[in-house]
C-alpha cells in the first residue's frame, strides 16, 4: 500500500512513547488515523508496534532492532503476520556530522540525510527543538521520501512519499524510527 502524504505526531506519556500516523486529508491537514505506534522507553532492544486502532488491539506492523546496542544496528520492519517488508539502519560513521539512514524494501534502496548541515551541527550542541528535514533518495538521486519536523515542542512531522514503490508501512516505520533514534 502506498500513501503519498501523511503526518506523524508524538503523544507523551509516562512509560511509553506513542505516535499517531494520520493520512493527509483533502485540505492538506491530518485526516484519517492510519496507525498508532507504541515504543517502550528504556527497552534493551528497540521495538515499536503499530496498531490499527486507538485501543491497540490489532497490531498491523512493527519494527525491531537486530541488536541490543543500536550504534549501527539495523531495524527489521514486519507486517502483521511477521513477514519482513523492509529494513532500515542508521549509518553511524556518516551520522557524526549529519544523521544518515539507509532504507530498503522490495524494489527500493534509498539513503536519507539531514537536509541542512548547519542545523545538524547545532542540534548536536544545543538542546532545542529545531525543525529539521530528511530527504531520502534512491541510487539515481530520485526522491523517495522526505520527512520534515515541524517547529514545535512536541514532535510532529509531515511526510511525503513521491515514490509509489515505497510501502506506507515501511515509510511510517522509518518516520517514527527517525524520531525515536534521533533522541539518542
Automatic annotation (TrEMBL):
Pfam families assigned: LOR
Domain of life where this protein originates: Bacteria
InterPro entries referenced in this protein's UniProt entry, alphabetically: LOR
Protein's name according to its UniProt entry: Scramblase
Amino acid at each position: 500500500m502506498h500513501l503519498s502524504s501523511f503526518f506523524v505526531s508524538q503523544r507523551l506519556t509516562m512509560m511509553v512513547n506513542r505516535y499517531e500516523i494520520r493520512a493527509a486529508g483533502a485540505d492538506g491537514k491530518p485526516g484519517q488515523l492510519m496507525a498508532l505506534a507504541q515504543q517502550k522507553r528504556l527497552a534493551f532492544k528497540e521495538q515499536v508496534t503499530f496498531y490499527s486502532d486507538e485501543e491497540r488491539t490489532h497490531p498491523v506492523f512493527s519494527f525491531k532492532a537486530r541488536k541490543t546496542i543500536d550504534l549501527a544496528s539495523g531495524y527489521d520492519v514486519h507486517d502483521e503476520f511477521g513477514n519482513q517488508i523492509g529494513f532500515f539502519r542508521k549509518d553511524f560513521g556518516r551520522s557524526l556530522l549529519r544523521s544518515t539512514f539507509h532504507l530498503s524494501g522490495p524494489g527500493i534502496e534509498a539513503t536519507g540525510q539531514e537536509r541542512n548541515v548547519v542545523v545538524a551541527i547545532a542540534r548536536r550542541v544545543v538542546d532545542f527543538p529545531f525543525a529539521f528535514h530528511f530527504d531520502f533518495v534512491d541510487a539515481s538521486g530520485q526522491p523517495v521520501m522526505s520527512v520534515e519536523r515541524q517547529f514545535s515542542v512536541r514532535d510532529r512531522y509531515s511526510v511525503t512519499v513521491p515514490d509509489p514503490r515505497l510501502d506506507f508501512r515501511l515509510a511510517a516505520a522509518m518516520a517514527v524510527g527517525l524520531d525515536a533514534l534521533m533522541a539518542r
